[in-house]
Design goal:
The protein has 267 residues and is mainly β. 1% of the residues lie in helices and 59% in strands.
Length: 267
């Protein structure tokens, strides 16, 4: 499904990933990576005019983050290397050990640090353990790395902690997982499992509220946008459900919540 949040723009249906930054009125689009291993990342102004672009090559992935200074990073996998781009150029290549050579799954930026999760080890019983890595953006030095008990689809900062959100992908009990990390040390403070849901595909902070996209079912696909409340997932006053086969992305601006199929005013 196509999505347009600007006054004159369109995101192609073959888009694999995108992100939106209300601070800079930026949209980043990356497409065709999974089919041809060739992609293009573009940034647009508020009128839909392309500002800059870069051609990129991944075998899989393509996860985008943008900061308020208009730096943007794309994390993914090229062969067995995890790649992060900034302003369209490769910033660093980092090859992890044999157990963690499956590429990046999510990325988040603050002014000084990049935070990325790397697809890690898997067992039938426990599901995924992802390697979470924080690096200094100027020196590229690793500040810390932590193993988190989930396959992370989203990383963000909320109430001065780092939230990693996704699912454990266990063959026995697949459920949504949120791990909260100390921002300075990477130590896990709390991990929440939501057995009534099969995963979390995206998250967004707006006006001190954390919204998450919860996957409720696999067959048929069913997703709902909910609000985080002290470790609980709370339905919005008006139910927002999508049946898109690849999930939905969420963005909030000017009290309007946006998804892949529709938008509406927040309660």
């Amino acid at each position: 499904m196509a999505l347009c949040i600007l006054s004159s723009c369109a995101i192609a249906e073959n888009t694999q990933s995108y992100t939106i930054s209300p601070e800079t009125e930026y949209v980043l689009v990356q497409s065709d990576l999974l089919s041809s291993q060739q992609g293009r990342i573009s940034s647009f102004d508020k009128n839909g005019k392309e500002i800059q672009h870069a051609n990129i090559t991944f075998q899989d992935g393509g996860y985008i983050a943008v900061d308020k200074n208009r730096d943007f990073y794309v994390a993914g996998e090229r062969g067995n290397d995890n790649v992060i781009f900034t302003r369209g150029k490769a910033q660093f290549f980092h090859q992890l050990d044999e157990r963690d050579r499956s590429g990046a799954t999510a990325i988040y930026l603050d002014e000084t640090t990049s935070y990325a999760s790397m697809n890690g080890t898997f067992s039938q019983e426990d599901g995924y353990y992802t390697l979470f890595v924080a690096r200094d953006r100027k020196t590229n030095k690793t500040l810390y790395q932590t193993r988190i008990p989930l396959y992370a689809y989203s990383i963000l900062e909320y109430h001065n902690d780092i939230y990693t959100l996704g699912d454990n992908q266990s063959a026995i009990t697949n459920n949504a997982v949120v791990s909260i990390l100390d921002k300075k040390t990477g130590k896990i403070k709390k991990t929440h499992h939501f057995k009534e849901y099969t995963g979390i595909t995206d998250a967004y902070v707006y006006k001190n509220m954390l919204f998450v996209v919860v996957q409720r079912n696999y067959d048929p696909f069913e997703y709902e946008i909910m609000r985080w409340n002290e470790g609980n997932l709370v339905p919005l006053d008006e139910t927002y459900i999508s049946h898109a086969d690849e999930g939905i992305k969420i963005n909030v601006a000017d009290d309007i919540i946006y998804g892949m199929e529709e938008s509406r005013i927040l309660p």
